[in-house]
C-alpha cells in the first residue's frame, strides 16, 4: 500500500467564527495575503502536497429566504476569487500545489481553461482544478438564473464543460512550439487545431489562445459523490475528494472503481483524498479545550443558515414532525442536494425514522460544526486513527485536512505536529518527488 498524501482545505479559514478565535487574523484581517503566504510556507516545510480552495459566489440566503443570518454570523462568506491569492502564494513557495474551484454550471469553459492555463504557468505546474456542479440558489441568482438547474442536467453540463476544457488544453501541444530564433518561426501550424465543439450547452471553435502550460492541463479533481456525479467524473477525474465514515468511504471507493472501469480507465491510478477535520495539540486535554472554544460560537440562526445554504433547502419550512424519508423528498422536490448532510442523516437513522425540527437541528449543529466527526487529540493519537482508517479503506489517496480553529494557528498545528508525526512513522508518501503537482500526488 502506497503512503498517504496530504492536503489542506483553506476554503473556510475565516468563516463560521474562525476569524475571532485565538490565533486568528490579528493584525492582518481577511483577506490579507500575508496570512495565506504564511500558511503556504509552513505547509511546504512540512511536505504537504496541496492547498485547496473551494468556492461559492453567492451569500447564503436560503434560510428564511434572507441573507441576514449569514451576514450577521459570517456563514460561508465572505468569499474571494482565490486565483490571485494562489499566484501570491506560489511566489513564496516552489513545490506545494494549489487547488482552485470553478463552477461548470455558471462559467464558460474557454474562460476557465485559459485562466487555469495561465495559473499553471505562474506556479510552474502546480495547479489542480476542482470542477463543480453548483446547486445553490444564491449562486444561480448572481449569474442570471431564476431557478437552479436540475441535478442531472447540471452533471450533463459538467461533462460537456470538461470535454471542451480538455480539448482546448490539447489544442496547442508542447511540440507545436518551435521558437527558432535563427529562422523566426514560432510555432508549427500543422500541430495546432480548432476543436470545433458544438454541443448542448456550448459552442467553442478553439484552439486555446495560450501557450501550453507545464502540466499540459491542471490536475483534474471532482468531489461529486452521487451516482450521476461519480459516473460523469469517471471520464476525466485524476483525483477525487471524498467524505463520510468508514463504510461510506468503502462504498464511494467501490462505486468510483466500478465507474472508472466502465469508462475504460485504470482505477488504481485515481486516488481519493478524504475530507477530514482535525484539531491537533500537544496534549489531548489541550485539544479538547480548543474544541470547546469552537462549539461555543454557534448560534441557532447560524446553524440554520449553514444547513439551508449547503443543502439548498430552507429548513425553516419543515413541519414540527416528519420522517427522514419525507425530508429527502422535500429536498429533492426543491432541487436541493440529497447527499451531504441529508444523505448522511438517512444513512444513520433510516428513512422511516421520525424527527422533530429540534432533533433535526441537533444533528444539524453537529454537522455544521463538524465536531461530531472531528479527529481531536495529540499528534500521536490522531496519527493512530489515520493509519487505522487508511489501512481499512485500502490506501490509494490520503487526507485533505480542514481545521475548525483560527488561521493560521490550526494549520500551523497540523503542519508542525501531525504531519511530522505521520512522516516519522513512514505513513506518508514521499514529499515532492516530481516537478509538477500531478507527479507529486500520483498514487
Question: What does this 3D model show about the protein?
Answer:
- This protein has about 450 residues and is of the alpha/beta class.
- It has one domain: TIM Barrel (Alpha-Beta Barrel).
- The chain contains 16 helices and 13 strands.
- The chain has helices spanning about 35-45, 70-75, 85-90, 110-125, 135-140, 150-170, 225-235, 245-260, 285-295, 300-310, 325-335, 340-350, 355-370, 380-390, 410-425, 435-440; strands at about 5-10, 50, 95-105, 125-130, 195-200, 205, 220, 240, 270-280, 320-325, 355, 375-380, 395-400.
- The strands form three sheets. It has an eight-stranded parallel beta barrel with strand order 1-2-3-4-7-8-9-13, surrounded by six helices. Strands 5-6 form a two-stranded antiparallel ribbon.
- Helix 1 links the parallel strand 1 and strand 2.
- Helix 1 packs parallel to helix 15 and helix 10 crosses helix 13.
- The longest helix is centred in the middle third of the chain and has 20 residues, at about 150-170.
- The radius of gyration is 22 Å and the shape is globular.
- The relative contact order is 0.17.
- The model has no long low-confidence stretch (mean pLDDT about 95).
Amino acid at each position: 500500500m502506497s503512503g498517504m498524501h496530504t492536503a489542506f482545505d483553506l476554503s473556510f479559514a475565516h468563516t463560521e467564527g474562525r476569524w475571532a478565535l485565538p490565533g486568528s487574523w490579528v493584525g492582518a484581517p481577511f483577506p490579507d495575503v500575508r496570512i495565506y503566504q504564511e500558511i503556504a510556507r509552513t505547509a511546504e516545510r512540512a511536505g504537504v502536497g496541496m492547498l485547496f480552495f473551494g468556492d461559492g459566489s453567492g451569500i447564503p440566503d436560503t434560510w428564511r429566504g434572507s441573507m441576514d443570518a449569514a451576514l450577521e454570523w459570517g456563514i460561508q462568506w465572505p468569499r474571494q476569487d482565490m486565483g490571485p491569492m494562489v499566484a501570491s502564494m506560489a511566489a513564496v513557495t516552489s513545490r506545494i500545489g494549489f487547488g482552485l474551484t470553478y463552477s461548470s454550471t455558471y462559467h464558460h469553459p474557454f474562460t476557465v481553461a485559459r485562466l487555469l492555463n495561465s495559473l499553471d504557468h505562474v506556479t510552474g505546474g502546480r495547479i489542480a482544478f476542482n470542477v463543480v456542479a453548483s446547486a445553490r440558489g444564491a449562486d444561480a441568482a448572481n449569474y442570471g438564473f431564476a431557478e437552479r438547474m436540475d441535478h442531472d442536467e447540471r452533471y450533463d453540463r459538467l461533462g460537456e464543460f470538461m470535454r471542451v476544457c480538455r480539448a482546448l488544453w490539447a489544442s496547442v501541444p508542447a511540440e507545436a512550439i518551435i521558437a527558432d530564433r535563427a529562422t523566426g518561426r514560432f510555432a508549427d501550424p500543422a500541430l495546432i487545431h480548432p476543436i470545433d465543439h458544438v454541443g448542448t450547452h456550448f459552442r467553442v471553435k478553439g484552439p486555446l489562445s495560450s501557450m501550453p502550460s507545464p502540466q499540459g492541463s491542471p490536475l483534474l479533481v471532482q468531489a461529486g459523490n452521487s451516482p450521476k456525479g461519480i459516473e460523469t467524473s469517471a471520464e476525466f477525474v485524476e483525483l477525487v475528494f471524498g467524505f463520510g465514515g468508514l463504510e461510506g468511504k468503502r462504498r464511494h471507493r467501490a462505486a468510483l472503481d466500478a465507474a472508472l472501469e466502465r469508462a475504460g480507465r485504470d482505477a488504481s491510478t485515481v486516488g481519493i483524498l478524504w475530507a477530514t477535520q482535525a484539531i491537533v495539540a500537544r496534549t489531548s486535554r489541550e485539544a479538547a479545550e480548543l474544541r470547546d472554544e469552537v462549539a461555543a460560537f454557534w448560534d441557532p440562526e447560524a446553524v440554520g443558515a449553514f444547513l439551508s445554504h449547503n443543502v439548498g433547502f430552507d429548513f425553516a419550512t419543515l413541519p414540527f414532525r416528519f420522517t427522514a424519508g419525507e425530508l429527502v423528498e422535500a429536498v429533492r422536490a426543491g432541487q436541493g442536494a440529497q447527499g451531504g448532510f441529508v444523505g448522511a442523516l438517512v444513512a444513520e437513522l433510516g428513512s422511516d425514522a421520525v424527527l422533530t425540527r429540534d432533533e433535526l437541528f441537533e444533528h444539524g449543529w453537529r454537522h455544521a460544526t463538524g465536531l461530531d466527526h472531528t479527529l481531536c487529540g495529540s499528534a500521536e493519537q490522531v496519527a493512530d486513527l489515520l493509519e487505522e482508517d487508511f489501512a481499512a479503506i485500502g490506501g490509494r489517496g490520503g487526507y485533505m485536512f480542514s481545521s475548525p480553529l483560527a488561521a493560521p494557528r490550526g494549520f500551523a498545528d497540523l503542519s508542525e505536529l501531525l504531519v511530522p508525526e505521520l512522516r516519522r512513522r513512514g505513513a506518508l508518501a514521499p514529499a515532492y518527488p516530481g516537478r509538477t503537482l500531478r507527479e507529486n500526488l500520483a498514487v
